[in-house]
Amino acid sequence: MRKFKIAMAFTGIIIGAGFASGQEMLQYFTSFGIWGIVGTIVSIFIFGFFGFVIVDMGHFFKAYSHRDVLNHIVSPITNRVIDIFLLLTLFGIGVVMVAGAGSNLNQQFGWPIWLGNLICVALVFLVGMMNTEKVVGAIGAIAPFLIILVIVISFRSLSTADWDFAAMNADALELTSPLPNWWVSVLNYASVNLTTGVATAFLLGGVEKDKKVARHGGLIGGIVVGCLIVLINLTLFATSAQVATFDLPMLQMARLIQPWVGLIMSILIFFEIWNTAMSVLYSFSTSFITPNKKNFRYVLLAASIAAFALSFGGFTNVIGFVYPAVGYGGSIIYDVGEKSLASFFVSENRKQVSSPVE
């Protein structure tokens, strides 16, 4: 049961505004046609591996923040560079999520975008006042419901599609992408999402007492994320001509099936958007002060207000700018730190690093 909880929390971190809505899939995978499908299959292995590794590291160091891990495995200079980058990433993705919340409720209900943005940050602040284990539980609570609905919508859409691969590929290749080719897109996408989720994934491992539960939960969560990427992209590949012009194509796909399906999908997407906003803004705040301190609420409140203020740049435009930038930056950061990470997982070197609980 605890493995499932960690797996769903890890999935909930990744499934945010762009993922659950399908906008990320359009830009990163669908726009490359058949090669984009190949890229999504590669993603299963990438997310599964790093889900295992990151959550395990969080468990080993009993981490509440990415700093609890970085302080032990990289040099002070590298630590500082990664720290600054992760803080900027967490806040930047928080802004994207808040923008996605407003766009979601605007597309489904016609509400003003500012209202959806405000509801999102208000929920972030209110839930963030709970203890850390309850926050982790809240982050993973909605993921199973959205996964089920995505599977239903995808199979319904795929079963009724006219499977003319040449025509589908032609429609997909007419879409635009901020990335130059499919393999750069795969690496960039993995980088941006893992960079987004790494701080909270450390936290997932940090609050789990059993090493095997932490490891297996991260592995399962990563595989689930990869499989969802394949399924959503394949669905968009088959239906891009009908849904690609919308900010939230998966929501539009649900509405085409039945209006009430669109309503349920809209609500679930909103809460998954909030999930990711919750995880990144909470992790951003815990980087400055531990959650059990009284002043934590003021840091989280300030982060939420700032994210709200910067969330009016347009959801699609914000994804097209922030995500590739984070992905390229994350690739450089991982390259800088890969030797330290590799040495940590060589058993004889790992024994030389003292776990806080050993």
TrEMBL record:
Transmembrane segments: 32-61, 81-103, 109-128, 135-155, 186-207, 219-240, 260-284, 296-323
InterPro entries tied to this protein: YkvI-like
Record's keyword terms, sorted: Membrane, Transmembrane, Transmembrane helix
Domain of life: Bacteria
Protein name as it appears in the record: Membrane protein YkvI
Species the sequence originates in: Tetragenococcus koreensis
